[in-house]
Structures are given as C-alpha cells and as structure tokens.
Amino acid sequence: MTNSPLPTGDEKTRQVRAMFDAIAGRYEMVNRLMTLGLDARWRRRAVADLRLPAHSLVLDVAAGTGDFARELERQAHCAVATDLSYGMLHAGREMPRRVQADASSMPFATGRFDGLTCGYALRNFTDLAATFDEMARVLRPGGRLSLLEVAEPEKGLLRAGFRVWFRRVVPFIGSLVSDRAAYHYLPRSTAYLPSSAAIVAMLNSSGFSAVNHRRVMGGLSQQFIATRSL
Ligand SMILES: C[S@@+](CC[C@H](N)C(=O)[O-])C[C@H]1O[C@@H](n2cnc3c(N)ncnc32)[C@H](O)[C@@H]1O
C-alpha cells in the first residue's frame, strides 16, 4: 500500500485485513512508541465517558489486540472484542471473549449491548455509514458509544511538530521495528476520514443522539461520544 492509490471496496477490506494480520505481533509496541504511551490515558477516559454502571456488557469493535477491551474489564465492565483480523485478535493478551467479524455486519443480536467502544479504526472501515448503522443496531436504546480516532492539532507549533512526528517519525519507527508498508500507509489512511462534523452527522443519521465531538490533548486525538436513540 506504499505509493499506490488507496484501495476501496472489497479490495480495501482484503488489504486492511492482510496488513493487520502482518503487523499484529508488534502492533502494541509500536502503538506505545507512537503515542509515547498517552493512548492508555485516552482509552481510560473514553471508557469512563460511557458512564455505564459496572458489569455492563460492552462491545469493542475493531478491537485489534484488545487495549480497549482490557480497559473495559479494568473498569468492571464485561467486554466482547470483535475484529476483522484473526491475527490481531490472536495476538491479544488476556482478552476474554473474541469474535472475528466485519464491523459492517456483526453476528450479534439487535440491542444486545449496553455500550460500544472503537479505537482508531474508522479510517479502516470500507463502508463507514453501514458500520455506524450496524453499531446502532447492536446497541440497546439508551446504550452508549465512545469512539477514538486520530486527529491533527489545528494550529501552531503543536500542529507542525505533530506533522513531522506522524508523517515522518512514525513511518520511520514502524519500518525499523515492524512493517514498512503498513506504517507508511498509516498517515495516508487519514485521507479516508471524513471531517468531524461529517462524522457527527453520520452518527445522527444512524440513530444516535446527543452526539458530542471532543478534541483530545489539543487535537492529538479525537473522541466521539453518543447515545443510541430510544
Ligand atoms: C489501528 S487498529 C486499532 C485497534 C484497536 N482498536 C486499538 O485501539 O488499538 C484498527 C483495527 O481495525 C480493524 N478493522 C479494520 N477494518 C475492519 C472491519 N471492516 N471490521 C472490523 N475490524 C476492522 C483492524 O483489523 C485493526 O485491528
């Protein structure tokens, strides 16, 4: 995926799955380096923002190796992890319940979950609107959604520094310790991401209300929080 046009449709699904299968073993290590460990704090807050009582049943969509699922369990929820990539689910440590599935068509009953998390995966979905519809379907009315996604600071030194870090340093580190093509694809994949306003509108039309967008740490990351409409 280095310099070729970004794939779409079934070809995107195929390439994304193959890429994550290939990088699964070192995914968490590169993630920690890439975010300087800050992602753990962002996930903690994103789970707390679900504002669900203990022992709620929460689905972690595109769970990867399970960072979010483990945080859900730490905060006393019952987590189910689902992901397209068998390699990512298999590489995850101490992940209790894992289901391999495409997020746009998940094998779960309608209204089954009290909450849903999804970390850094929106860019990777082939059909984002269908995936939001599916997230709404598996959540019970009143159920809560908390999504994290990459972002870019809006201005100033933080923006300039972030650009160098994300577009140059991260692909370099990724090439050294993992897979060159995958970590060159990472900054390019932001081209798939609609604006935050467009994502808010999509969530509203998929059946969510009280949709809230928040920039995290000056825009180093972003979060969407919403409630499944009654
Ligand atoms: C950047 S990783 C994020 C993993 C994890 N959520 C985290 O926060 O570390 C993106 C994940 O999305 C998964 N993914 C991509 N397309 C998917 C799809 N259509 N359905 C389900 N998972 C998908 C990938 O396999 C990968 O594990």
Overall, the morphology is: globular
- pLDDT < 50 stretches: none
Mean pLDDT: 94
Derived from helix and strand composition plus strand pairing, the structural class reads alpha/beta
**Main beta sheet strand tally, sense and closure:** 7 strands, mixed
Number of E-type strands: 7
Q: Biggest sheet, strands in spatial order?
A: 3-2-1-4-5-7-6
List the bound ligands. Answer: S-adenosylmethionine
User: What order do the SSEs take from the amino end to the carboxyl end, as H and E?
Assistant: HHHEHEHEEHEHHHEE
Number of continuous helical runs: 9
Strand content: 15-25%
Helix content: 40-55%
Rg over alpha carbons: 17 Å
Distance between the termini: 42 Å
Overall description:
- The chain is of the alpha/beta class.
- The chain has nine helices and seven strands; from the N terminus they run αααβαβαββαβαααββ.
- The protein has a seven-stranded mixed β-sheet, sandwiched between helices.
- The longest helix has 22 residues.
- The termini are far apart.
- The site of S-adenosylmethionine has 22 residues, from α1 and α4.
Outline the fold blueprint.
Elements (H helix, E strand, L loop, with lengths): L8 H15 L3 H9 L2 H11 L8 E5 L5 H8 L3 E6 L2 H6 L5 E4 L12 E7 L8 H11 E12 L5 H22 L2 H9 L7 H10 L2 E9 L4 E8 L2
Parallel strand pairs: 1-2, 1-4, 2-3, 4-5
Antiparallel strand pairs: 5-7, 6-7
Q: What are the main properties of this structure?
A:
230 residues; alpha/beta; 7-stranded mixed beta sheet; 9 helices; binds S-adenosylmethionine
